[in-house]
Each structure stands twice: as C-alpha cells, then as structure tokens.
Amino acid sequence: MRSRYGYETGAYDNFPSFSAKNTKILGRIDWNLSKNHKVTAKFSQLTSNNDNQLNATSTPNGALTGLQSRFGQNGMSYANSNYGFEDIVRNVTFELNSRFGSKISNQLLATMTNISSIRTSPSAIFPFIDIRNAMGIGTTTNISAGYEPFSLNNEVINDVYSFTDNFTYYAGKHTLTAGINYEYQEIGNMFMPGSQSYYAYNSLQDFVENKAPIVYSTTYSLVPGQSAVYASQVKVGQVGLYLQDEWVVNPQFKITAGVRFDKFGFPETPIENKAISAVNLYDANGKLTKYNNTVLPSTKIYFSPRLGFRYDVDGDKKTVVRGGTGIFTGRIPFVWLTNITQNSAMYQFGATVTDATALERFKFNPDPNFHLNRGDALLPTTPGGAVPTNLVYCLTPVSASHNCGVPTLPSIRIWAKAGC
Question: Rounded mean pLDDT of the chain?
Fold first, then answer.
C-alpha cells in the first residue's frame, strides 16, 4: 500500500492506546460601564474526544453480506482504520442591563450555542478495502484497510442564535414589560457511508493484480458544487413579540396579564423533487392528491394570551392562593422536518455495484472520486423519484392551561392541548 499508492495503513498489531479526554474552557467578564449600565459576557466550551475501534462487519450501503469479523484470529485490520468522535458544545452569552432614571430599565440579551458531533480518523482519505480469503484457505480470513467506511462526511450539528430585548416601565402599581425575541436555528445530519469509496475482493491476489472487485460502493452528493451535504437539514427563524402588565392591586393581591405573538419562517426550502410533484398519490382519506416536498408547515401568527393572580390571604405569606389561565406555544420540534430533505432523494445517492460484468469498469483507484468523475451510467448524478415520507404539515404544539392552588393544599390543574 505504501510503495504502490503512498498510503500509510498504520500498525497491524500493538495499536496505539485508545484515549478518551475532554477539555473545558470557561470565561466570564462583568463590566460596570457606569452606575446605570452593566455588561456581562460569558463563554464556555466543552470538547470531548473518544477513540473507537473499526466497525467489525458492517459495509456501506449493505454492499457485502456474510463478512467475517475484521478482528480476531481470522481477521486483520490496521491502526489507521480506527476512528474517533469529537463532540463540541460551545456557548457565548452577552447581556447588557441598563436603567434610565427611576422608571425605565432595559435588558438586551444575545446568545450563541453551537453543538456538533464529528467523526474523526487518523487516516488520510483513501478507499476502504475488504479482502476475503486473505490466506487462501476460505472466506473466513479477512484483511481490511483504509479510511473507516462510516466516518468520512459524518457529522451532526445544532446551532442556535438568539436575541432578546426586554423594555420595562415602572408606573406605580403597574410594571409594564414589552419585548422582542428572535431565534435562528440550524439542524443538520450528514451521513455519507462509503463516500471515500469501498472495494471488496475475493482474494489478496485479486487485489494485488488489480482485478475487478466483487463489490464496489460509494455515496456521493447530488447537489452541484457540494461534495458533502447534509441530507437531513432544516434552517428556521422564529420571532416573538410580547407585552405584560404586572399589577399590584394591594400588598396582598397581584394580577399578571400578558399576550404573546409568535411566528416562524424558513429562510431556505428543500430542493424540489419534480418527479414526485408530478405524481398523483392517495392522501389519508383515500383521495388523489399531489405532494410537494418543498411545502413546509404553515407559518401563521400564533396568539397566546395569559392571565394569572397571586393572593396572600393573611398578608404573612403563609397561605398564598395562586392561579392562572392561558394559551401556550411550546418548543417546536423542528427536528421532525429533517426527514423531509433526507427522504426526498435530492441530496445524495448511495450506489452499490455487484454485477460481474459491470465491475470490470470499477477496478481499484486510490482517488475516491475517480469512477464518479468519469461519468459511469451506474453512478447517476440526476436525482431519482423516490416516494417521500414523513411530510409534515402541522407542527406547532399549542396548549391551553388552567390552574389554581394553595401550596399547603392539593392544587387543581386543567390542561388541554390543540394542534396547529
């Protein structure tokens, strides 16, 4: 491998010790700009690295079945075919608290959270190879080498950016708060098994003599200009406007009333699979209809009024009656939408070639993209017409909640949930 292709496999025994380590970074700054303005900035990051052993028997796209373990007395693999995980959680917060006289205050809060899980490898990018019958005594002996078949272009991300501004006005018995919140979220799952290309051979001699493999497999992007894609991905922005009045009727009785408006939208829509848009399909009621994978859930405005009270019966805070009613829009499970892109057949394609005649065109090449770049008909670059699944048209969990209780007594709670 080294002399012919310039590839370093790593050791075949006495592997370097696997490690598991994590690094934490924390920082905070509190800065009094003046007696009326205070800034707080915080940063935290956790990085975790864990080494793992090469998968024992799995092959990309189910290319080869019946493969014996790549480890043990009948299997040999190399150190650079192992892999690792790098998990990163990063958070940045900026907060500015200000007072303008005795009646006005303002809070500005901006946050950024980045969460990622990435597969790593000590190997240079190189095809993965399984060789059966390595010792010439049957298919129970294996040699395996190359870049671990499931680690290249394998990562998960969840990035959230938010901005909140709360303006508060103190007017005697009333405390009025008006605010705006904007949140942008990006969720992505990239998984391209065998994107470094995969070859399987029936003997060591077949590989050395560069004969045709018994299986060839790869996964590649269908999106022009992108060699690696998040087949499962969604980007969404959500804006909220709210107003609240906290009214202290008297020292024992307080009423809080508020209203909130929420609306979310999608800065990007999935790539349309026109082959599917043209097909008539049956809906849940048995009627013919058309589906379009670019149609995302409704982005109407959600209206959420709330009303609550607090009554200190004797004025000594020992017996307090609390209650409230309102409509609440919960956290929206945007991750559901990732299946719309994943199942649209528009982002990536996993190809496996097993026909003996066709495999004569897929002899080994150290360039993972060699066969794709030569334009073989068995590696189509035009998206197919797979039937979409998990189309989501209703997304937002809305609930009505009513409760009343005394801390020293059993409380009463009535709760109802509605759809979009």
Answer: 88
